[in-house]
Every structure is written in structure tokens, then in C-alpha cells.
Fold:
Amino acid sequence: MKIKGKKLDGPNYDVIVFPRVDGDIVIKVQCVLDYTPFTDKFELPVAPKVQMRGSKDWKPNTEDPTYNAAIEKYSTYKTNWMMLKSLEINDDLEWETVDMADPETWGNYVQELEEAGFADMHIAKIINSVAGINGLNDDMMEAAKERFLAEESALRLRNSLQDAADNTAPGDVASD
Structure:
């Protein structure tokens, strides 16, 4: 596939550079395109059915504490998995306590970043970049839309000025 003649080659990614006295730290975050490895291992929890008094219909009981705990666990696993998959683009990044075969360890990435000397705001930047690159940040999507619209407006103005220049004889004054 091409857009404006440019071939798109792989998922989008972002680069974060943390300046350090002993050398900048570059961290890339990449869009996760395939959640199948996660969904093959983890099924979305289903709420138990409950029959309301005086009704023959069964409805999902989304207030069930066991269901809510299962949803919370599933969501945490999926978020941590997405975070780690987004960071896999960094070939030189090695986790010491994260084991992709053990979802209970996936959240350890935060502690490892802290122990490596990343400040809370740096960790938040990484998390927000992952959310943004995966299309989960409305502010980033809106900013991209505004950039696109501004570029389109500037292009129309440039084309309009070029058309006026092309249609004006040398020495004539262009009219509005």
C-alpha cells in the first residue's frame, strides 16, 4: 500500500530520547498490530448470567465481584503485554525480572525502569508514548489531525498563490 506515493513499511513507531551525562538513552516504542498471541492465551471474561425477579430473560451480571476481578486482571495483563510488545523494537533492551511466559511478571517493567534511574515523569512519558502510538491517546490523535488540516490549508493557499502568479502576465498586478 502507498499513501501519497510513499510505501508504508511496517508499523508506526516513536522515539524518546532521555539526555544523560553518561550518554543519551534512546527508547523506541512501536505500534502493536497483532494481538493474537495475547488473545490466544487469554479469553475475555464473560459476565455470569442472572435472571431478574419476575422476568424470564437472563442478563449478564456485570456487577458480579468475581467477574469484575477477572476483567481487571485481564485488562492489566493486556495493558502490560501491549507495553512490553511495544518496547520489543529495542533490540538492546533486556528485562531482568520480566518473563514473557509468565504474565504475573509483566508489570515488573515499571520497577525495573525505576531501579534503572528513570524518574516517574520519564516512566509516564514512555507509557504515554506507547498509548499514543497504539492510538489510545485522543490528544495525540487530535494534534495529528490539526497538523494535517493546517498543512492542507497551507497547501491550498500556496496553490492559490501559484495559480494567481501563473495567470498574471509579467508587469501586471494580480487582482483579488
